[in-house]
Amino acid sequence: MVNPSAHISGSLNSLKGVWGPGSTLPGSGLDSVRMPKAAGSDDKKAGFADAVKALENYVSKVDNLQQSSEMSIQDLLSGKGEDIASVVSAVAKADMSFKLLVGVRNKLIEAYKQTMNMPL
């Protein structure tokens, strides 16, 4: 029998790697809020371009997971593979990553709307 909680926690751990080492998933609480560094700081500054690049990488990973789950379904239906547990696992992983991507998109849209409604 497949343990769904093991697949979900594994998916979340792999998704945390997308945002970089030591970081948390977006919207996971106040721990993810970082204060800006001073102008003379020697630390590497993460800019908007870095965030966009990370988001592009994550979208491509979600797409790859979707395509791999589709291929595993096609293989199962055509008789090439008989392991239904791996198919269910691939579909669940693709579904979880897509739901997380939609959640991030919704938060970005909400932040954009709030920024546009700010008084000057």
Helix content: 55-70%
Radius of gyration: 18 Å
Low-confidence stretches: 1-33
The number of distinct β-strands equals: 0
Amino-to-carboxy terminus distance = 58 Å
The chain-level structural class is mainly alpha
What does the largest sheet look like? none
Note the beta-strand portion.
under 5%
State the shape: elongated
Average pLDDT, rounded to a whole number, is 75
What is the count of DSSP helices, taking H or I runs of 4+ residues? 3
Strand/helix succession: HHH
Short structural description:
The chain is mostly helical and 120 residues long. It is built from three helices and no strands. The longest helix has 33 residues, at 84-116.
Could you explain the architecture of this structure?
There is one protein chain. This protein is mainly alpha-helical. It has a domain at 48-120. Helices cover 64% and strands 0% of the residues. It is built from three helices and no strands. It has helices spanning 4-16, 48-78, 84-116. The model is unreliable at 1-33 (pLDDT under 50).
Features:
elongated, 120 residues, mainly alpha, single chain
How do the helices and strands line up, and which of them pair or pack?
Elements lengths: L3 H13 L31 H31 L5 H33 L4
